[in-house]
């Protein structure tokens, strides 16, 4: 079975990839735009694995996604590419701002 995981460098995607590598014999193609939330280091355990492939691709790039489908013919897709981490980061930034400018400044 061949899987396509979008957003595989993210928090959930990288955990999925590590679990697939450890527990199955599936081939996995990971695509990720590598936004500020994407962390390739989180894939260090699986990146050298012969069953794993990574390509920096924007999921919104329809032509690139179609080429990947044609070439790798995945049987399953886990679509985890999202702006989720950005929301968390913005929340963090807001908290830092609050701590620096409200609490510390008092
Ligand atoms: N983290 C959680 O606790 C949690 C809980 C429930 C559901 N989810 C869902 O799981 C999904 C992934 O969440 P996450 O926490 O891993 O987010 P994340 O921000 O850590 O990872 C998202 C990944 O998507 C990539 N990405 C963003 N836009 C892209 C694009 N246009 N093309 C390709 N890649 C793109 C980013 O580079 C990043 O690596 C989201 O849909 C989120 O709502 C997350």
Keyword list:
single chain, 106 residues, alpha/beta, Rossmann fold, four-stranded parallel beta sheet, 4 helices, 45% helix, 19% strand, elongated, binds nicotinamide-adenine-dinucleotide
Give an overview of the whole structure.
With 106 residues, the protein is α/β, with parallel strands linked by helices. It has a single domain (2-103), classed as Rossmann fold (3-Layer(aba) Sandwich), CATH 3.40.50. It contains 4 helices and 4 strands. The chain has helices at 11-23, 44-47, 62-72, 84-103, and strands at residues 2-6, 27-32, 52-56, 76-79. It has a 4-stranded parallel β-sheet with strand order 3-2-1-4, with helices on one face. Helix 1 links the parallel strand 1 (2-6) and strand 2 (27-32). The chain is elongated, with a radius of gyration of 17 Å. The mean pLDDT is 86. The structure holds nicotinamide-adenine-dinucleotide (NAD).
